[in-house]
Every structure is written in C-alpha cells, then in structure tokens.
Amino acid sequence: MGDLLGNLALGFSTALSIQNILLCFTGCLVGTLIGVLPGVGPIATIAMLLPLTFKVDPTGALIMLAGIYYGAQYGGSTTAILVNIPGEATSVVTVLDGHQMAKQGRAGVALGTAAIGSFIAGSVATVFIAALGKPLTELALLFGPAEYFSLMVLGLAFAVVLARGSVLKAVAVIFLGLLLSTVGTDLETGEERLTFGIPDLADGIDFAVLAMGIFGFAEILRNLENPETRDVVRGAIGRLLPSKEDLKRSLAPIARGTGLGAILGILPGNGAVLGPFASYTLEKKIAKDPSRFGKGAIEGVAGPEAANNAGAQTAFIPLLTLGIPPNAVMALMVGAMTIHGVIPGPQVMTKNPSLFWGMIASMWIGNLMLLIINLPLVGLWVRLLKVPYRLMFPAILLFCCIGIYSINNNPGDVIMTAFFGLAGYALYKFGFEPAPLLLGFVLGKLMEETFRQAMVISRGSFMTFVERPLSGALLAITAAILVIAVLPNVRKRREEAFQE
Amino acid sequence: MLTRMIAAAAALGLVAGVATAQPYPSRPITLIVPFAAGGPTDVVARIVGEHMSKTLGQQVVVENVAGAGGTTGITRGATSKGDGYTIMMGHMGTHGAAPALYPKLKYDPTKDFAPIGLAAGTPILIVAKKDYPAKDLKEFVAHVKANAAKVNQAHAGVGSVSFTTCTLFNHQIGTKFTQVAFRGTGPALNAMVGGQVDFMCDQIVNLVEQIKGGAIRAYAIATPERSPALPDVPTTKEAGMPEYEVSAWNALFAPKDTPAAIVAKLNDALDKALDDPGTRQRLHDLGGVIPTKAGRTSASLGKFVEAEVARWNPVLKAAGVTAE
Amino acid sequence: MTVKSPQEVAAGLFLIVVAAIGLWQGAELAAGSLNQMGPGMLPRALSVILVVLGGALALDGFLEKGAGLERWHVRGPVFILGAAVVFGLLVRPVGLAIAGPVAVLLGAMADKGTKFVETLVFGVILTAFCVGLFKYALGLPIPVAPWLLGY
Predict the structure, then answer these.
(1) How far apart are CA B181 and CA B174, in angstroms?
(2) How many CB atoms sit inside 10 A of residue A459's CB?
(3) A40 φ, ψ (degrees, to nearest 5)
(4) Most CB contacts within 10 A, which of A96, B12, C11, C67?
C-alpha cells in the first residue's frame, strides 16, 4: 500500500508540472474539438495530431497523446448525442438514447451526464490500473482465441437485446452486418472475398465508412423527408445540466457501467468495444420500465458512457504492462512511444517509473480536464443545435466527407460512404435498425478470426469452445441472455394467437 | 510580325525559366508510407523524414496509405508525378516479396521506380513462447521438426513481414507447419505470450521489450552481427544456421521519371540523416540497422531490389502462397 | 393469401437479394473443411442463413399485419449522395477549395428551402474554415488547390 502511494506520488509530481498540465489540457481540448467533427474518430484524430507531439519530451508527448485520445472519445460521444453519428464503435450505443434525449430538448442533460459519468468511471479506472495493473494482465492472458470467440458470441447476444423492434429483424440485420464484415482479404490465404474486384475493398470495409454511411448520410436523408421533426431542438433548450433527479438515476448505471467497461477493456483484442453494449443491455434488462429505452432513457447514456471511458482507460493496461497494444488506437500509441524513443514493454514500469506512473496520474488529470472543458462547452454545443437545419446538414455533409477522406487519403472511401448512405436509406425504408448491423460488423471480423484460430489450434475440434472452462462459461451466459431476450416475444405471440 | 513572335518566345522563355528556376524543393514533400501510422516502417520513415526536412529546408510530410500488404500505397506512389514532391518508403515486402505474392501487382519493383537509398533495416528474430522446451537454435529446430504436427506458427497475415520471413525459415529447414493467422503483430504476440502458439519470426522492433522482460524467448537474430539492443541473442551464424539471414529493410523510392538531380538531392538528405548522431541513436534504440556508406547509394539500392525479388520468388512460389 | 405487411415482405426480399449477391460473389472461393476453413465457408454460411431469415421475414409479412411500404424519395438521395460522390471525385484533382463549396451547394439542393446565394456564401466560408483548421492548424495532407497553389 505504501508502495502504491509512493508511486502515485511520483506520478502526480511528474504529471503536475506546468508543462505537463498544459500539454494535458491542450491534448484534451484539441482532441475534443477534432473528435466532435462527424466522421472523425479517435484513431483518425490521433494520427492527425501525432506530429504535434514531436516537439516535446517523451513523457510530455504521451500525456498529450492520452489527452487527445480521451478528448476524441468524448468528442465522439458529443457528435453521437447531437447529430446521431457514431464516430467509433463505442459510440454506437450512445446514439440510441442520447440523440433521442437531444430531440426532446435534453441535449444538455445528456452531454452533462456523459461527462460526469465518464469522469467517475475514469477516476475509478485509474485507481484500478494503479493498484491492480499487473494481476489484471495475468487475467487477460488467459484469453485465447476460443475464449475471444465465445466473448464475441456473447456480444452478439447483446446486440439482439438492444434492438428496439422485432427480434427477427434484429437478428437478420446482425447477420447482414456479419456478412459485410467478411468483405476483404482472407487472413489465412490472402484471397480476396466479395470485393467485386474493387481494390479499395481489398482491406475490407472501413468502420467509419460504414458508420458514416448508414448513420450519418441516412440520417440526413431521413430528416429531409420529415421536415416536422428535423430541427434537432424544438422550442426551449431546457436545462443545460443534469438535475439532482437525473444524477440520482444515473449513479447506479454509472457504477455498473464502470465495472463492466473496466473488466472488458483489459482484454486485448478490442474487448473494450463490448463495454457500452454490455452496459446498455444490463440497464435495459434490469430497468423497471424497459420500454423507455430507445426513447431517451438517461440510464441508456450514463451506463454506456461510463463503460466507454472505463474501457478506454483500462485498455492502457496491456500496453503499459506488456507492451502489447490491445487495439488500433493503442497500436498508434505504441508507434508514438517508439518514435519518442520509449519502447513499451514489461520493463517500462521498472526502468522508467516516472513515465509509467506519470501517465497513470495524468489519466486522472485528463479526466478532470475533460469535465472542466466540456461542461461549459455544453452550452455552446446546444446553441449550435439551433442553427437552421438547411444550413446544418450541408455542414455535416462536408465534415463527413473531409473526415472520411482524411482517414486514408482515399477519395474512393468517400464514394463508398455514399453507397452505404443509400444502403442505410434502404434499411430505414424497410424498417431495419442500423445499430445492430454495426455491432454485427465490428464483431464479425473478430469472430471469424478467433473462430478459425481456435479451430486451427484445436485441429478441427468444435469441442474446444466448450471444453475450455472460460469459453464454456461465456457461451452459457450467452444462451441465458438469448433465452431472456426471446422469451417475452414468444409469450406475446402465444397470447396473440390465443386471442385470435 | 517577327518581332512579336520573338517577344512572345522570349516572354514564354522567361516564364518557363522562372518556373524551372525555382530551386527544388520549393514546397513540402509528401512521403507515402504504405502502412498504418505507428508501425515499424512508419516510425523509421518519420524519424528519417524529420531530419531530411532540416537538410532540404522543406517539410517532409508523411502520408499513410495502408492496404493490401503495402501495395496500395506503393501503387499510388509509383503512379504519381515524378517531380520529386512525392516519394515513398518501400520495404522488403513491397519491393521484394510482392511480385511473388500478388500476381496482379500493378508495379514492377525493378522497373517502375527511381531508387533513392536504403534507410534503416530491422533485423528478424526467431522467437518462441517462453517455456518452449529447447535451449538453443539447434535444439529448437530439431524439436519443431520432430513435432511438426503439433507446433503452431503464428504470423500477422499473408503478405506481412512475419509471414514471408517465417516462410523462408520453413523452406530452409524443409518443414511445413500449421500457420495461425492473426490480424497484426499485436494479437499474434499476445497469443504467444499467453502460450497459445509456439513460435514466430518478426522484426526486432516489435519484440525487443518482450524479450528483455522475459515474456517470450529469442533463439537467434538473422543478421551477421549481434544487435546492441539485444546483446545476449546469438546470430543465426553463431547458432548454426548461417543461411537464414534476413532483414526487414526499408528504403526510399521515387516515381521512375524523377529527374536524376532531384534523386541525388534526396539521396544526399537521406545520407545526412543517417549520419546524424541523434537520428542514429533513435534508430539504434529500435534495434534498427543502419546501412554502411557503400550501401546507401541509389545504384546499390537498385541492384539490391533486383536481388531481393530474385530471392523471394522461388521461396514463396515453392510454399504455394499467393495473395489472390 | 393477402400481403398483410408489405414492408416485411419487401424487407425479407431485400435480404434474400443481398444474400444471393453474397452467394454469387463467393461462389469461386474454396469452402475448405472445418479443420482448415477456407475463405468461402463463412460468407456462404452467412448468406444461407440470411436467405432463411429473409424468407422468414417475408412469410411473416404474409401472416401478420404490419407497416405498409414507404415511399422512396428521389431528391434527397440524389443530391446528398451525389454531393459526396462529387466531392470524392473532385478533391484530389481540384482540391478542397473547389470541392468544398460544390459539395455544400449540391447537398443543399436536396432541400427545397435552399437559397442559392446564402448557401454559396455559407459554403465558401465553411470551406475556408475547414482549410484553415485541417490544412494549416493540423497539417493534414488534403489537397487545397493544386491548380493554384501546387498543394
């Protein structure tokens, strides 16, 4: 314990130097502003801003980068709430209830709750990392391909639960997402699949392209057709910040979300993606009135946002303790660290303690900064919403185009986004929901890889998924959740049939 | 009439003269890196590019164009205007193994480029999970050959450095292994640290800290000399497999019709970067190997690329691997 | 048998068509065995499942009362999606300085309430802001006006 306090003291003394505080602040601010732009998610933001960090020493650069990362995450949530566009897989859940709240004039409450929830989650996660970093990594290493596969299957069960409409349609659109995820180059043989010979598809469909198309463009098209409901905020703005009542309702979801997100974030291989989905599912299932979800339930924002942020923080654990980046953003961080001459690995903690603990301390400071920066900004964002839609939608369009282009400097990506915009429009006309499709898409890639890896390692034995205890347990939970999800529908059908 | 024509010609000549009299470079130079930001090639490109900006007096801006094992970015670079304002960082995969891996490749590494010069290379290591039952390389080779059916070899996807170098390894010891594909080095490394796969071959940059920390074990490094970053790891020559010598080399290229004078200027800037103590230190910290003066000329790069293409072709064809 | 829910039927048919495209494109890929799964196995399996689900949906459309078919508008999609396509085609040859305002103008035409001059001015200002932010402040390699400035 004394050790921990000593380390934290070292960390804070490093992080609280004037230079580092300034860097943290700049990072958070810039990250937020860029992350807010529709079409630009954390990866694109960090890649864009990476050169800015070259002028500074390694510790300072990393602090700034971490700030950019959180800022971008939060900025992405802001866009999700305000204009219904998820910048990253983890923001997909936020659009569900967050945007509905915005439409009801409660944008400020949604944004404020997200900020506060993220801060609480971040603080708890920081303590988590500081105290339990090493042992948690051992847990993460228990996850082999079979366990990951089962975890992803569990994730799909979440997708079914969070759907608002008919279960059949939700399952169908999830499978559509899974099919879309197979487009690209096969990992094992290098063969191109379903690419129609288009070179841009050789590496698969980019998440941002898909999300921007079926959410962003389709949303604009939808709004244009419904002039009555399109102005995002009708009438009075209402409260800018959450009321005591709102906060009381959010506290428990925040706590639960933090727990879920923190644990899932440790798992290398993008376990953090599942955090918000798991939280949303949990909140929806234990709520007294589940029908509120999808219509602006504050728990549907508080929980997932907390999970989101907790996961974002704990995702640093495999990076800082093992030197292995758990997802694409962390891989960028590794690159950034390498450029600055710090090669992350098991020895960073001992060889470079001021860097390690300084980063952890600045994580907490970054969370605090985000709160300080964003709460006042809420007023600004909400006022921006009053811009007449006829000016707003071309602006959103332009930002999306620039954002998509800048991901890979590829104009073909923009054209493909337009194609998915059409697809999104079709989905909307046929009564499908886009959110489960995105989740199916994100999970699909991971599922196929891990499934094949597990099968190769087990030399073709299906039983490996059940034999390995952790994997088996996850599959059992999946079955349970599916039963809980489907049962009410089945009962409803029976009652209807009865009445006829 | 005549006087007017002369005046026009003179004016035109003046304008043309002014335009070409603009010394190179007069605006930022784009350096296409055909991989995602943060990876080993990107890191080398940024370190070298930073110093080159100082020599050239104009910013060298890295543009990441990832895809298809690096060939997307290189294709874009190869088809750019040869005016010296677009160059690219190719490597062993894009300019050595690519012709064998991608039958529909849209460029020829030996013909469609004006080679500028070799940048830093990263040596390849043979690494295994930490409790693999073999003390040194000889025992390791014997053990994996004997247990070929049970051994799992990891790689980061067809077309990646870890894939091509391990294919060479398998070819040289004459054994095929069950290859488990991962999406990138991170997940592959993770699986190895967790003990789910047995071994792989990859660049030192990705592995050095894990080796030092004891999470995985290294059997040999595939260069003639030991690396200062890992002084305890024997070379393949010392360990009894001298024929396995491979480095993930990185080099700068320009589109093929770039004027020789501009190529020479770029080569000079690259050379100065590789001589600069600060840059050398950063590259060495990564475990990078900086080519000798003799190996840094454009001509030697051209010959090197031809040799590499010839080297990888039979190996990859024999393994029956193509990416399409 | 009357169609009780045209939307469901249409949705089901849509899925079947997509699945059919998947099956068609994936036809040459080797499925492999379960031990060594080939690239074709998963796309084929998913397409088949989608056909089944699509069929179930369509069937449902015949049995249960539900929503009717919604009208597809033309103006919106053509101008919004067209604006994005035009942006993609223009951004590298002529740069953001032109592609930006063009995209804004085209996109705005999707809405009947658009006023030309107002939108044009807005588009130019917005593009200028974007150029300043992305190109100069952040150093993004996005072409601004290659025909004028060379980058």
Answers:
(1) 21
(2) 13
(3) -115, 115
(4) C11
Write the CB contacts of A122 (distance below 8 Å, at least 6 apart in sequence): A70, A309, A310, A313, A363, A364, A366, A367, A370
Contacts with A176 from chain C: Cβ below 8 Å: 15, 18, 50
C1, pLDDT greater than 70:
no
How does pLDDT run across A198-224, given as a tens digit for each residue? 767 777 888 888 888 888 888 888 888
Say which of B39, B180, B186 has its CB closest to residue A457.
B180
What per-residue confidence (pLDDT) applies to B18? 45
* B324 → chain C, closest CA residue: C29
Q: What is the token pair recorded at B115? A: 């080679």
Q: What is the mean pLDDT of residues A419-435?
A: 90
CB B193 within 8 A of CB A137: no
pLDDT in tens, A305-345: 999 889 888 888 777 777 777 777 777 777 777 777 777 77
pLDDT < 70: residue spans in chain B: 1-22, 68, 321-324
DSSP B153-172: EEESSTTSHHHHHHHHHHHH
Among B152-156, C68-72, C78-82, the minimum mean pLDDT is found in: C68-72
CB proximity list for C132: less than 8 A, separation 6 or greater:
none
CB interface of B with A, residues 7-46, below 8 Å: 36-39, 42-43, 46
C-alpha separations of A262 from A180, A256, B88 in Å: 29, 10, 41
Interface of C with A in 47-66 (CB under 8 A): 47, 49-50, 53-54, 56-57, 60
Q: Are A306 and A272 within 8 A, CB to CB? A: no
Burial level of B234, CB count in 10 A (0-12/13-18/19+)?
middle
Whether residue A453 and residue B189 make contact (CB cut-off 8 A), yes or no, is: no
B vs C: CB pairs below 8 A: 7
The residue written with tokens 């197979």 in the block is A182
Contacts with C117 (C-beta within 8 Å, 6 or more apart), sequence order:
none
With 0-12 CB in 10 A as exposed, 13-18 as middle and 19+ as buried, what is C144?
A: buried
CA separation (Å) from A495 to A192, B245, C34?
49, 73, 42
The Cα–Cα gap between C130 and A158 comes to 38
Secondary structure string (H, E, C) spanning chain A = CHHHHHHHHHHHHHHCCHHHHHHHHHHHHHHHHHHHCCCCCHHHHHHHHHHHHHHCCHHHHHHHHHHHHHHHHHHHHHHHHHHCCCCCHHHHHHHHHHHHHHHHHHHHHHHHHHHHHHHHHHHHHHHHHHHHHHHHHHHHHCCCHHHHHHHHHHHHHHHHHHCCCCHHHHHHHHHHHHHHHCCEECCCCCCEECCCCCHHHCCCCCHHHHHHHHHHHHHHHHHHHCCCCCCCCCCCCCCCCCCHHHHHHHHHHHHHHHHHHHHHHHCCCCHHHHHHHHHHHHHHHHCCCHHHCCCCCCHHHHHHHHHHHHHHHHCHHHHHHHCCCCCHHHHHHHHHHHHCCCCCCCCHHHHCHHHHHHHHHHHHHHHHHHHHHHHHHHHHHHHHCCCCHHHHHHHHHHHHHHHHHHHHCCHHHHHHHHHHHHHHHHHHHCCCCHHHHHHHHHHHHHHHHHHHHHHHHCCCCCCHHHHCHHHHHHHHHHHHHHHHHHHHHHHHHHHHHHHC
The ipTM is 0.90
